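Journal club side-thread
Mid-discussion, someone asked how the predicted structure for our own chain would compare to the paper's figures. Pasting it here so we can look after the session.
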Amino acid sequence: MNVLTVTLNPALDREIVVENFKINEFHRVKNPSYSVMDPGGKGINVSVILSGLGVRNVAMGFLGGYIGKVVEERMRLMSDLITTAFIHVEEETRENIAIVDPVGETITEINSSGPLVKPDDLRMFVRRFDVALSRVRHVVISGSIPRGVDNEICMTLCKKVSNSGKVSFVEGIGPAFEMAVEAGVVTVARPDLRSRKLLFEETMVDLKDYVKAAKRMLERGARLAILSYAVEGDVIATNDGVWLLKTKSHIDRSHLLGTGDAFMGGVVNSMLENEKDYFLAAKRGMAAAVAEAEYISKERISLEDIDEHMDSFDIRELE
């Protein structure tokens, strides 16, 4: 097994395409293909992307109830490159709804909170994590924290990865993400800035704010910092400099679903081959995101898709 992905709060994602979507009006889904149901949660999405790139991986986290069974069964059917090792809890796994309007170029997302994780469930998960960690070198920890789990969990898991001399990729927002970064145990840090542009208690408005935040993550020990900026661009920082990667063509906002996870999948896949070339990993991540943005739904892109999009964005050195 090459990669371990951790999704502490998985979901069943329901994506509905509604043209000219408006609040407080009746809408009818025109085509069965406009209503899709897939396993979700950011780490799970990375697992699926990696499987499309030919990477064997094991997916961990907490699943519960009937919805949890649906998520796990669908993952097993999607690819034999994905091994599931979830801990099953009593309460139902959450459902997330995304209403995509390709005409208005909008995505409206409604995410539920997820099940309660009890102390015994968490202890079992940590034991299983330790076993899985001994068999991989690269660990992705991505997404929100479920109820019943302290914010220290991300830092705790990353310390285990760091102490083993292995590589961690973390995407999240809020105290759990920030604590792990501040502890200096995150190799690749990507804050999830979809819902709010707040990081380390500072609101990011201008490009210089993103640069400052990226450099702070490097100062705390990260080797690569990735921050989404203005939809069609990403601020990338390594110890060699800071850059803005910006797409050459317009990206339809309604096609953004899954692009962040594709970015992370591209980074992980690149570092499996070139572990110390962080700038190359960022470029391949950006190419993966641009390739994913060609689809309105989440799709498993290929290595050929990434190669074809390596020149689909401009690179501007900021510092």
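Post-session note: The first helix runs from residue 42 to 52.
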